[in-house]
Amino acid sequence: MEAPGPAPAPRRFTWEEIAQRSARGPPPQERWLVIDRKVYDISRFHRRHPGGSRVISHYAGQDATDPFIAFHPDKALVRKYMSPLLIGELAPDQPSFEPSKNKKLVEDFRELRAAVEKMGLLKPNRTFFMLHLCHILLLDVAAWLTIWYFGSSTVPFLISAVLLGTVQAQAGWLQHDFGHLSVFSESRWNHLVHKFVIGHLKGAPASWWNHLHFQHHAKPNCFRKDPDVNMHPLFFALGKTLSVELGVQKKKFMPYNHQHKYFFIIGPPALVPLYFQWYIFYFVVQRKQWVDLAWMLTFYIRFFLTYLPLLGVKGILGLHLLVRFIESNWFVWVTQMNHIPMHIDYDKNVDWFSTQLQATCNVHQSLFNDWFSGHLNFQIEHHLFPTMPRHNYWKVAPLVKSLCAKHGIEYHCKPLLTAFADIVHSLKDSGELWLDAYLHK
Question: Which of 182, 178, 201 minimizes the C-alpha distance to 191?
Fold first, then answer.
């Protein structure tokens, strides 16, 4: 019996070859990416990717080592499923990531990541999350008791609406924790409780949130990759570069020079009740997410069964609309204060640390700010370490600041009201840039 021959040598690739497989250009649109110098062909797999087709495709033609580490707690398990996708590795003369990236910054951030893991900052305190869930449930019960005991007159009705609006906002932050796999060590438990919190407590689908939010984290503020900036250019002109480009192209879908004014009409008050509220049902039906739909229906059944006897049909519809209005204002101001005032542009394929720092800013820490924003006042730390439990953000913040200082990167942190005002100021500035380019360039 002949001895088996030597295994064939792995194929070697250059960064130039990999960059050509970014799903752009004429068919066949190949998609390759690199993780730890290994080259993977995701041309077919991207549609089966558990995190969504788009989020992994956003790194086609690029090094995806840092986002892979950031998004996957159980890397050993994931690598088993990656084996059939492996087609080779980088040639020995090729650097471990694109030559255009800051080598020292990439290495320093990876050292920081290793230190974070060694310090145990990725380990959750489940008591923290359990207490947070309990406070949400208590507020939910208090809202019903208010109308049950005091009646449906104006004052108890409004108090109940504020309590329920608070429930929706806080449940939004809690589902965010489970969606990021930050609470349990096993992903399946995070997924299960995520469906309960976002589906039963909020009436929204987990699959919809995953589809949008993971893209946002992969490429924040990158036009055509981050869905959170898809309001450009139909409703708003965002960022200096994109606004000038829009003006030079003589495009005008809205009077952008007034966008800092109409933001108060079509932004915070309207996003949830007039868009999200209805689009989520279209999303789950169109994508056949029947489990998510079932979870959503349990929210509406519970809401109508508990409040219909107390308020009647008109009253319960009015309460629901008012709660969504409160939730919408809370959600938009908190989520946009960290991103709209920051750099918005096309994807320039810079390193992970720079990608997150140029697109995010923080808000000062306080007990109120932590609670009000669900610890998203630590947006920088959250974006760098998306699976980190939120109660540890403040611990890693000094290390992130130190790395920023070492490399001359500005670490933006501001008061809460200043952060709110900067949304309006940035919209005003980008609107004026658009107008100047539209009229004179």
Answer: 178
Low pLDDT (below 50) residues in the chain = 1
In this predicted structure, what is the pLDDT of residue 385?
98
What is the end-to-end Cα distance of the chain in Å, rounded? 78
410 by Cβ neighbours in 10 Å (0-12 / 13-18 / 19+) ranks as exposed
Q: Which two tokens stand for residue 139?
A: 């507020």
HSE on the CB side for 398, CA within 13 Å? 1
User: Residue by residue, what is the 3-state secondary structure of the chain?
Assistant: CCCCCCCCCCCEECHHHHHCCECCCCCCCCEEEEECCEEEECCCHHHHCCCCHHHHHCCCCCECHHHHHHHCCCHHHHHHHHHHHEEEEECCCCCCCCCCCCHHHHHHHHHHHHHHHHCCCCCCCHHHHHHHHHHHHHHHHHHHHHHHHHCCCHHHHHHHHHHHHHHHHHHHHHHHHHHCCCCCCCHHHHHHHHHHHHHHHCCCCHHHHHHHHHHHHHCCCECCCCHHHCCCCCCCCCCHHHHHHHHHCCCCCCCHHHHHHHHHHHCCCCHHHHHHHHHHHHHHHHCCCHHHHHHHHHHHHHHHHHHHHHHHHHHHHHHHHHHHHHHHHHHHHHHHCCCCCCCCECCCCCCHHHHHHCCCCEECCCHHHHHHHCCHHHHHHHHHCCCCCHHHHHHHHHHHHHHHHHHCCCCCEECHHHHHHHHHHHHHHHHHHHHHHHHHC
What is the pLDDT at residue 103? 95
Which are the contacts of 59, defined by CB distance < 8 A and separation ≥ 6? Answer: 33, 67, 218
Q: Which of 302, 315, 73, 282 is nearest to 186 (CA)?
A: 73
Per-residue pLDDT tens digits for 322-380: 999 999 999 999 999 999 999 999 999 999 999 999 999 999 999 999 999 999 999 99
Strands 38-41 and 86-90, sheet pairing = antiparallel
Neighbour count for residue 433 (Cβ, 10 Å):
22
